[in-house]
Design brief:
By secondary structure, the chain is of the alpha+beta class. It contains 14 helices and nine strands. Helix 2 crosses helix 5 and helix 8 runs antiparallel to helix 9. It is globular and about 60 Å long.
């Protein structure tokens, strides 16, 4: 693999590749008005997009904002559909094949064939190895304070320069990051862009490399801005935490939040929705509370003949899928029994408990 991406921008800028990016971008959005409008004159729209990228006149459209409240309140900024096609093309043709392979193998967020369950399995496996080799050990669990809002775009752009020497590709990266001229005082990147999750991973890959290469921590996992170090002693945790805080401040202009702490392994590890022990895994309390609250709502809707049964079953099945990755059989049985809408007529056979 070449050290830097160069002389590939125009080679990968083809109608067919933009068409493939469009097909990825429209997935699960086929009936949205902006997608229908774009597809009404698909060939001309893609040709115009290609020409704008080719001659350097491409610019981002205007963001629109909305809020989400799960898992916590966040402001999402979304771009027009044509820009999402370009993001798809950029990530698929350059980020995935040339930059992601340089990540450590225990970075799990937003990556193909990884995800939360792989992350949880890896943390537990590492804990089991530490238990077998050293007996007692300690956990250092950290996450970043307001991560996306505190990413420094200028530092991000400098990091990308380590991977990219292709000038038109760098120019496009600059447009994505700054949406205009480079501004060293700007802070934060939009939550909602397809590129943002990859830029965030590239940003924290600097931390991954520091922890693995400089601190030489063998057992380490990261899922976006949550990361776990498994260390022999409490003093190892104290020392590592201080060094990580210094690195984040000096190199990435980030801070750990006040929930970052260290503790004996017997307390278990809260990570990616589970509480992980060397011998078993449990569902986090927040997930239990959420499903109980949802079932209470669905029951009320059912008794008032207002239940969207299909939606309730899909949501319940999703929770079952999540909870099935830990020791949850008894909890699942209890939740099923509390669902009034699952014991009426044929509905009781729609969803079966999983072991």
């Amino acid at each position: 693999m070449p050290k830097k991406i160069k002389n590939l921008f125009y080679k990968n800028l083809t109608f067919d590749k933009l068409l493939a990016a469009h097909k990825r971008a429209r997935k699960h959005k086929t009936y949205k008005n902006e997608v229908i409008k774009f597809e009404f004159n698909l060939e001309n729209n893609l040709i115009n997009l290609l020409k704008n990228l080719e001659n350097g006149t491409y610019r981002l459209g205007k963001y629109f904002q909305f809020k989400i409240y799960e898992p916590k309140e966040r402001i999402i900024q979304a771009l027009p559909y044509k820009d999402r096609i370009v993001h798809q093309w950029y990530v698929e043709e350059f980020i995935k094949p040339f930059i992601i392979p340089r990540f450590i193998n225990t970075s799990f967020a937003c990556l193909d064939n990884k995800g939360t369950h792989k992350a949880v399995e890896t943390v537990q496996h590492q804990m089991q190895i530490m238990k077998r080799n050293f007996g007692d050990f300690w956990i250092l669990k950290c996450d970043i304070k307001k991560f996306f809002y505190n990413i420094n775009p200028y530092i991000l752009f400098q990091i990308l320069k380590k991977y990219i020497s292709d000038k038109p590709l760098l120019d496009l990266s600059q447009i994505f990051i700054f949406n205009g001229p480079i501004d060293k005082s700007k802070v934060g990147i939009p939550i909602g862009n397809y590129t943002s999750q990859y830029f965030a991973n590239i940003y924290l890959n600097e931390l991954d490399q520091y922890i693995k290469r400089d601190l030489k921590v063998k057992y380490y996992c990261r899922y976006m801005d949550d990361f776990i170090l498994i260390l022999k002693t409490k003093q190892d945790c104290i020392n590592s935490k201080k060094l990580i805080e210094k690195f984040l401040h000096n190199h990435l202009k980030l801070e750990l939040n006040n929930k970052s702490r260290y503790y004996p392994y017997k307390m278990g590890v809260n990570f990616c929705g589970y509480r992980i022990f060397t011998t078993h895994r449990l569902l986090r309390t927040s997930s239990k509370k959420k499903i109980k609250k949802n079932i209470k709502t669905w029951n009320n809707q059912y008794h008032n003949n207002k239940l969207d049964f299909q939606y309730a079953i899909q949501s319940l099945n999703s929770w079952v899928g999540h909870s099935s990755h830990c020791n949850s059989y008894k909890l699942q049985q209890k939740m099923f029994k509390s669902c009034d809408f699952l014991v009426s007529g044929q509905q009781k056979d729609v969803l079966k408990p999983q072991t």
